[in-house]
Design brief:
With 290 residues, this protein is α/β, with parallel strands linked by helices. It is built from 10 helices and 14 strands. The strands form 4 sheets. The protein has a 6-stranded parallel beta sheet with strand order 11-8-7-12-13-14, sandwiched between helices. Strands 3-4-5-6 form a 4-stranded parallel beta sheet, with helices on one face. The protein has a two-stranded antiparallel sheet with strand order 1-2. It starts with a strand and ends in a 5-residue tail after the last helix.
């Protein structure tokens, strides 16, 4: 955790959490992306009625193997990917369930933008330069360079060349905060979404955020995507670079289809996939009276 650009010491973090627990006396402590912050073992004080829940946004087997043992401090765990459930159950002997991410409709929402230059295709994301995940993104995005693609993300996108295509020419700036990201989504005719390879069964936070912004989305298909959003009706899903380019050309020429799909995706997310919906599920699963 950071405070004013400085790391918060683990002991200080535990003390601050303990003070908040004594003051608020909650029944539930929900830790997000907690695998690398194993503070619960060192939490001072006794809180016998407190239920401790972790919601893992990243695969602990992919990024940080030492985090596995720390997860035993929680009473229950949720993961955003179904494929992480079985190995986690074996590793920690705790209840584990899959629960997809969601959207914050106060941050990601349709905007009435005027006087701006619209972008045909936008991509917002990390380059992952030097990592296999980056090679996947470069390979896919090179198929869109001829469509006036706009890339927002870290500065490593500058100078990246994929199979002779200079992706640096598509770079527009960044990294950008959620509010600016929402503006980018709203100003684009279509938004391209590329999952990190750690997502094997399910979908990412960005998938819900793009829909919540009211934008038309081209997302790389993953097993389990249909459990949250319907390809062809609420999002468009591609399976290869050539498929991505073909669908981009087709939908750029079909504004009514883009508008219809974007509206359906927005409605689905607002009805089923906000963080309020996720918190309600956790409260119901734990049978809490909050």
């Amino acid at each position: 955790l950071e405070r004013r650009g400085e790391l918060v010491h683990r002991t200080e973090l535990c003390d601050r959490v303990a003070v908040a627990l004594r003051e608020w006396k909650p029944e539930l402590l929900l830790a997000l992306e907690c695998g690398s912050h194993p503070f619960l073992q060192d939490l001072p004080g006794d809180f016998p009625k407190l239920r401790k829940v972790a919601w893992l946004f990243d695969d602990p087997f992919y990024f940080e193997s030492s985090a596995i043992s720390n997860l035993r401090a929680f009473d229950a765990l949720y993961t955003v990917d179904q494929s992480w459930v079985a190995p986690l159950k074996l590793a920690i002997g705790r209840p584990v369930a899959a629960m997809p991410l969601g959207a914050d409709p106060d941050t990601y929402r349709p905007l009435a933008l005027r006087g701006i230059r619209r972008q045909p295709i936008a991509f917002v994301g990390t380059s992952y330069r030097g990592h296999p995940a980056g090679l996947v993104r470069q390979e896919l995005l090179r198929h869109l360079a001829g469509f006036d693609l706009a890339i927002w993300g870290d500065g490593h996108w500058r100078g990246l060349v994929a199979d002779g295509v200079d992706l640096g020419r598509c770079y527009r700036g960044g990294p950008i905060q959620p509010e600016k990201t929402n503006e980018v989504y709203n100003s684009a005719d279509m938004v391209v979404n590329i999952h990190h390879p750690q997502i094997r069964h399910g979908t990412s936070l960005r998938t819900f955020a793009v829909c919540a912004a009211g934008a038309f989305q081209l997302v790389d298909w993953r097993p389990g995507l249909e459990e949250s959003l319907e390809p062809g009706r609420e999002v468009a899903a591609y399976r290869s670079g050539d498929d991505l380019a073909e669908q981009a050309a087709r939908y750029l020429a079909d504004e009514p289809a883009r508008t219809r799909i974007a509206a359906a995706g927005l409605a689905r997310v607002r009805a089923e996939h906000t963080y309020v919906h996720r918190l309600r599920r956790i409260i119901e699963d734990l049978d809490l009276r909050i």
